[in-house]
Specification:
Shape: globular
Strand order of the largest sheet: 10-7-13-12-14-15
Number of domains: 2
Structural class: alpha/beta
Distance between the termini: 34 Å
CATH class of the largest domain: Alpha Beta
Largest sheet: 6 strands, mixed
CATH topology of the largest domain: Dna Topoisomerase Vi A Subunit, Chain: A, domain 2
Number of strands: 17
Number of helices: 13
Length: 359
Amino acid sequence: MARKVELKRRQILAEIKSLGLNICEQIDGGRFPLIEIPSRSSANIVYDETLRQYVLGPKRIKRYSKNIRHVKKFSQLVWLAYFIRQLMLSNKSSTLRDVYYSAEAYGIFFKSQQESNEIIADMEALLDTAREEFHIFPEERSAIFGELLVEYTCPGYEGRRVWLDSHPSGIMIGPSLVSAEFVECKAERVIVIESGGMFDRFIEEQVHKRYKAILIHTGGQAPRSTRWLIRRLNKELGLPVYIFTDGDPWGMHIAMVIISGSAHAAHIKDLATPDAKWIGVWPDDIIKYKLPTDKMNDQDIKRLKELEKDVRYQNKFWQSKVKLFLKLRKKAEQQAFSRYGLTYVVDNYLPDKLSEIEG
């Protein structure tokens, strides 16, 4: 892993240098410099059936320094390349928020963090590299717990090892963990959990031991670092991944983004885990277990109708779940199983569901 990270670091630095040299050559040649990047517009996002995720198509756009409408984004992109180079040369990291504020020290201004984030996404597309690999990370909000021994590779902690069940509330998923080496694993599966309350319940009820599982809390839609780690656990350790969310269109889509990727991050590959399985809460579970429900609102119904047309949801399994939700017009939280007792979800629902999925 350490050697792979170093090779990637050198590649990114070489590509940034090439970008700078190309701009200088254009200026030396008496031309206004331009930068050509892959288009991230929705019109250029296609679903790759082989990869089973969204990817960018062939369309590209040009940012001209001579075009007054492009100058701001052009300068922001050039500054970001410089900032990334400094991060990598000094072996430091930055949050998305840090980038937004750091720009002001150089006379580069973003009207909002969203604008800053969009420029970072442009740089990802330009370098064909995830921002995490050039040391820019979101705020941490996901956690992991289980019998997995990791060895850190980040500066200052190289060689240090920790079991991921060593903290009773789990360990936050950040850059140091995503880049760590997997040393020893006693788990046989990964269970991804949407809500913090259910994550805590699973730890309390020793699900990691009873079901030999690594537990991951997504905190809602899984951050990219979390999706990256889930993919590593699946690909490198061969662990099957099961996703447990609320029974509503939003929970269902949390699972789908882990499985097939998101349209917003179509320019980044290797984030999806195509063989992961959504194990519930299914609309069928609402009926079978007579779960307490809430009536779906207009926004829920609108979202379901969008998902019904989404290319990722076109197989028989996903279509059946969307249509049943539309028929029921009801939704249920993971915690709804508590109507049968606090441990029912672990003692009854989970083993039944794993038996159903694993055969």
